[in-house]
Specification:
The protein is of the alpha/beta class and 172 residues long. The chain is 38% helix and 29% strand.
């Protein structure tokens, strides 16, 4: 009976490990970019853009070596990320009976070009969407909430860029 319990536990651990490995799960501390890349060079028209700050923050979390400064010594193993200016649009979702806007959909658009170490270029774009409820009676609170929502959208965009870089490079 004791052997049967040990075997079933071992089998359960093996099945769980195989399931996690097959779905692409990996720990966050594991290197996200391919092993043959050493640096992520981020270019943008403004080096103080909020998306660049969000990207640098996420690069620290994912332990990615890189930034807004080029590293000539690592040129052969550098991925270059050229960010286009970010764009934020609003789409009207609903209005109050008084005709004032009650709810928006915020559309944060990101466009960028990736240049891989082998010289291959990929142009990519995506959108991050959020619903935002407006309240004209609480302008200050809603202004702060909007700033928090935009910050979260930028962090989500930065995460998405890093994931897309990893998956795009794997496909080359």
């Amino acid at each position: 009976m004791h052997n049967l319990t040990a075997i079933s536990k071992t089998l359960l651990i093996l099945i769980t490990t195989l399931a996690l490995a097959s779905c692409g799960f990996h720990l966050r501390s594991e290197k996200t970019l391919p092993s043959n890349t050493d640096y992520l060079y981020v270019q943008a028209s403004s080096q103080n853009a909020p998306l660049i700050r969000a990207l640098e923050s996420r690069m620290n979390v994912y332990q990615i070596n890189g930034g807004a400064e080029a590293e000539p010594a690592l040129k052969a193993t550098t991925i270059t990320l050229r960010l286009q200016p970010e764009k934020l649009d609003r789409r009207l979702l609903s209005v109050f009976a008084t005709g004032q806007v009650a709810e928006y959909e915020l559309i944060y658009s990101v466009r960028y070009t990736v240049v891989f170490p082998n010289g291959e270029e990929l142009k990519t774009a995506f959108e991050v969407l959020r619903e935002y409820q407006d309240d004209p009676d609480q302008v200050l609170a809603k202004s702060r909430e909007l700033n928090l929502v935009l910050s979260e959208m930028r962090l989500e965009a930065a995460d998405r860029i890093i994931r897309l870089l990893s998956s795009q490079y794997a496909g080359l």
